[in-house]
Batch of 2 targets.
Target 1
Amino acid sequence: MVIILGIESSCDETGVAIYHQKKGLLLDKVYSQTALHAEYGGVVPELASRDHIRKLSPLILQTLDETGIALSELSAIAYTTGPGLMGALMVGSSIAQALAWRLGIPALGIHHMEGHLMAAFLADSTLTYPFVALLISGGHTLLVDVKAWRSYYILGESLDDAVGEAFDKTAKLLGLAYPGGPLLAAKAMQGRAGVFTFPRPMVNRPGLDFSFSGLKTAVRTAWYSSSQSEQDLADIAYAFQQAVIDTLLIKCKRALQYTKYERLVLAGGVSANKKLRADLISWAKIQQVKVYYPEQALCTDNGAMIAYAGYLQYQQQQRQSSPFVIKPRWSLEDLSDVPFRD
Amino acid sequence: MPTILAIETSTDACSVALYCSQDMLISRYQIMPRKHTELIFPMLDSVLHEAEITMDKVDALAFGRGPGAFTGVRIASAVIQGIALTDQLPILAVSSLATIAQGIYRRKKVSQVLVANDARMKEVYWGYFSLQAGIMQIEGEEQLSSPDKVPIPDGKIFLAGSGFRCYPEIFANRDIPLTYQDKEALPEAQDIIPIALSLWKKKEIINIADALPIYLRNNVVHNNLDNR
């Protein structure tokens, strides 16, 4: 029986989960540091590392306790090697490597973004390759051609701010508290369409890359020339969110046309955005595309996706321990066996 | 006496030690900045192999809990936590400054050591240690301060640590003989052992949740945000 313990510590979430070959995901525990960083308006890397080392081992013990799994039953430890914050990755890697060393089982270093990709299978087992994945979070904006396991090709990425970052920065300039992204989305619910209009960045250019920093400037200009009422805020939030969503949808459509795939996977923390999901669903019906998106707990950073990605690696007979080296910068394409360019 | 496995990674040096008995202390030590992760497990395998024992025979784990490089002290602490998870082994947390002082005692047989390590940002981690029953004990508390705030006591005092190399002005107006200075001194896991044994005797044992680094520097926010 293959049982994998997954550990995630790449940013401001400490995640531990256990994936069981027969029973699937047994438990997925996440401790979020959001409150810790809120007063600084952003993630403070050193504070993140200090919190991970306080929380991770107790969370592992709690997970084992609640699932009734003994450490001796584990087949391997999967942990996030990168990309992410150096000090934060180091804590998870050190505990994972040491635990695996003591147990005499493999320590499988997992790419954080592969975890996000594979989470889609955890959420819906009917998903099959190939598909286009849109990975959107506070640190990443990627359109990926996923041909098969470990065959990932980046079709487009953000040239500046990640989507989540754009949401947070825009929220900040509108005076909303940290983390502002979800607050901005909530304000947008009260906003009216058509009051403000912002550009859809880079849609008139060929290619699948994104740029969101210009949008921020447009929002700033609109905000300072408005009366800054609650309704203005809501209307601007609506227009900003819609510009982002439209841009994402236009690029997704292009990616699907280019690859000729019929499946689109949405992943990463920003994919929890309700308006995005709603627009995507109605858009997908018209386009005759099947859209897969994990529930919110699997969209944000978590240990389950790392445990599952580790499980897949283990099942591919790749069972040697990863070197004890973290990779704060690491392209998803480096995982692909065969270089792909056309 | 317990069998103790010790790790120290708070500086550019990476070291492990395995204490089996008074006649059997096995250690590994290497100065290799930023390569601790690559060295640590081969070192642990190697000391266990030489002692011809497995982890089942280890009674307690000890680690250098700092102060020192943040990432370094977290590696020692996290590795010890990870190893301890399996058997919930007792853990002994040992000051990295005391470990330097203990090493000076082992090599020079002096009984008073002022340890000051470079803490960057024009500050040093420092502590004043004196020998009691073969163990270097802190006088007062370990501190983080600017080098000019480090008092050099009268009498025969040994100066150890990178702080004296980086900030020679600390002892500029004092005539300290070269034989009473070691500006390159680094903490070694073998010197954790005597201190860990004394903690064991005093039952100053901690569990996994408390096996955390001592940073001394807690104002880290502005520094980090400014560097982004």
Note: The longest helix of chain A spans residues 230-259.
Target 2
Amino acid sequence: MYKYVQNSLSRTKIDEQLAVKMHSELAKNRIDSEFITFSSERELSALLESLVKSSATTIVVVGDDYDFNIFVGMIGKIDSATAIGYLPITKSKIAKNLQINNWLDGIRALSQRKITEKTIYSIANRYFYDEIYLTTPPPDGSNSKAIKIKTENNLELTLPTGTIRFENLNEDHYFNNAPIQVNAYLPGEIITSKSSLKSKIMNVFDKKNQNHGKLMLSLHSKIFNLEGADNFVDNLGRKYKNIVVIGKNNKKIRLISKKTNQKSN
Amino acid sequence: MIEHANKGHISDLVGFSGFYIGVEVSAIGDIKSEEDVFVDGSYKGSIKTTGAVEIGKNAKITGSIEARSAIIEGQLKGSVLALDNVYIAGCGELSGSAEGKSVSIDSGALVKARIDSGKNV
């Protein structure tokens, strides 16, 4: 049984014409059903609980990467046997990784139902999919050392406030023992042509983050304990307490993708 | 892993992906890694890696280093043991010991250490 969930407050709206087209394509593939909306994490949590109780075998997110990440955040409620699909209605990094080009392609993937597994990690009482950014305001506007990070191996690091990015390296088997990469960046120090050679090198070091400030820390571990002087906020606008544990729990999810070499269901 | 020449720098190599503690960061504990490690901040503890270690100009380290090779441009109080080469730059400071297949020291380096070179570690 396929169930579709849609964020009614999504940044990417689905107009009536598009909804009609989507339902028509889904009906052709005999997997059509209502798009159930949610407007908050609390609503989503209750919705997922009820969908699991109603024996939904597949839950499909209709929306953009923001909506997908909000969905994954609450995924603890989902039974591990449930397959997760994604119909991207705008350009999507997550869909690209699943080799899904657009929502139409996503419907083809749903009908083919190829499953790929991925392990995701917890951040406080939520989960994150591929990456998550946390920031905290500096105490009194100063740039004092205000964040403490402790790794699984009891390495204790103290650093200034800035942006901290956690990346799920689960798909790279090289990092099985330490699957979460942390990169921390100083705020507002965007690399320019006048930056030092080392800064430029460090920018090359992580090409994916050229829009962030200067890299000040990079390492990976299984678990991180993060403590800030103030509460943290993530890139989706969600708030966390000043103490956050990352990677304490993990969960295997079953994603519907167009990738090859997958288990079929 | 990055292969680097005796006087090369890990951070000079494009595509460096390893363990990095920047100048803004202070750390206490033990680092066990299979990657290259680049420390430019303050650090107390041990570093043990099968990769290379570079101690940056701003680094202040108290502890021990075991690595494939090591470049010291900052301050190290403790021991460094390398399978291959230990290179102490002119701006580097070492008090303690250095052991490796070869240990080279640039003029200007402040070294108060027992040096053991020329043997397989």
Note: Chain B has a mean pLDDT of 87.
